[in-house]
Amino acid sequence: MKERYQIDTEENKKFLEEVRNTLVNFGHRFPSPGGGSYYLGDDGTPWKDRDRETWITSRMAHVYSLASFLGHTGSEELIDAALKGLHGELHDAENGGWYAGLTADGEVLPTKQCYAHAFVILAASSGSLAGRPGAKELLEEALELYDLRFWNEEEGLSCDTWNTEFTEMDDYRGLNANMHTVEAFLAAADVTGQEKYRVRAGRIIAHVIGWASDNHWRIPEHFTKEWVADLECNKDKPDDPFKPYGATPGHGIEWSRLITQWALSTYKDDEKLAAPYIQAAENLFKQAVADAWNADGAPGIVYTTDWEGKPVVHDRMHWTLAEAINTSAVLYRVTQKPVYAEKYAEFMQYLDEKVLDHVNGSWFHQLDRHNDVIGTVWPGKSDLYHAVQATLIPYYAPDVSIAPAVKEDKK
Question: What is the pLDDT of residues 371-411, one digit of tens each?
């Protein structure tokens, strides 16, 4: 295995730096005149006929906050552009909160999404660390709104979707939005010092570990309003980008990292209390990798499996690889088990050989089972969030959210 793929080598650090620089250069053309993020095409050209969505705009604010800590030229202007969108065209001044997005013609996309609001919290947390005007106020508003509309203190979980006016709540409950809520809550706790958000993240995590351990460490994704797992959800649309049928191994891997971060940050001085959570994180990672990595005779992580671990959607999404890189590195840092360093190197090689676009930059967002580029679920290259984080998380403290970790390191 080449040294450029092996963790803690100078060659690997240089490789990730090169990948990161290409990524942040690739995304410069995302802002619309109103600040909402255009969806980027294969070469970074904005696809202006597509929706401008809040979750993508928030991710771009977060990414360029990270880039600003690393000294990337132009980052501050790009953060400010995205924050302009979150303060302006994507913000619902009448009903509160943030629209799902806008159409190319400026029409409001209906509903208010927990998923999008979690990313607003992440964007505002990172933007406030970057010292950008209005970011602190945005974070305060986003947390207040989230507390009011999405967090259920009795259940210790978040709901998923309201109508635009916040008068009707959808019956669907899901773990994707709750996963990014954990990420957002950990960031908010790290940035503001309000530990209640770390406590809330832990309550969500306790539910997830319980559901996963009862299901052979394959996480149920979809639930009724009573939080009863709906294991057959979307069986007729298995490749849905946000609600696919079956288990999503990439989410098992992502949860593994977030659980580890929460446990380390919560039980800093007590390894015994952290240990059961680290073990759960290892169980999730091992099961996901066993089910999905190289599962069909070709390298890559399949998008979904059934509840026995057999692939359903064989396509490879770029974000699953990014999370595999992150989590293998984090588990190696925490456990020092060689198997995680070995997996990290395998993922790095696959990134270089199949997923990196060495011509246009960024990462191919979707490959088929033969690792040919397709765009049935994710055409183009919508945003940089997963990919940029995968160039950073492997080399920063695993108990701190990535934005404060990078900023502290660069002081």
Answer: 999 999 999 999 999 999 999 999 999 999 999 999 998 76
Look up 386 and say whether it is catalytic.
yes
Residue-by-residue DSSP string for 11-38: HHHHHHHHHHHHHHHHGGG-B-TTSPBP
Please give the Cα distance from 13 to 294 (Å, whole number). Answer: 25
Q: Which long-range contacts (CB under 8 A, 24 or more apart) does 42-51 make?
A: 42/357, 42/360, 42/380, 42/381, 43/360, 43/361, 44/360, 44/361, 44/362, 44/381, 47/380, 48/104, 49/104, 50/104, 51/101, 51/102, 51/103, 51/104, 51/109
Query: Per the residue annotation, which of 62, 222, 251, 318 is the catalytic one?
Result: 251
The Cα 403–Cα 409 span in angstroms is: 10
Q: Which two tokens stand for residue 250?
A: 């990439």
Collect the ranges in the chain with pLDDT lower than 50. Answer: none
The tokens of 220 are what? 């149920």
28 included as an active-site residue: no
User: In one letter, which amino acid is 210?
Assistant: G
Prediction pTM value? 0.98
